[in-house]
Amino acid sequence: MKPGETGVKRIISATRNSLRGIRLAWQSEAAFRQDMILGAVLVIIACIAPITTVERVVLIAAVLILLMVELLNSGIEAAIDRIGPERHELSGKAKDVASAAVFFALVNLGVSNLLILGPWLLSLVSN
Question: Which residues are annotated as a binding site?
Answer without folding.
Answer: 10, 23-26, 29, 56, 70, 77, 86-88, 95-96, 99
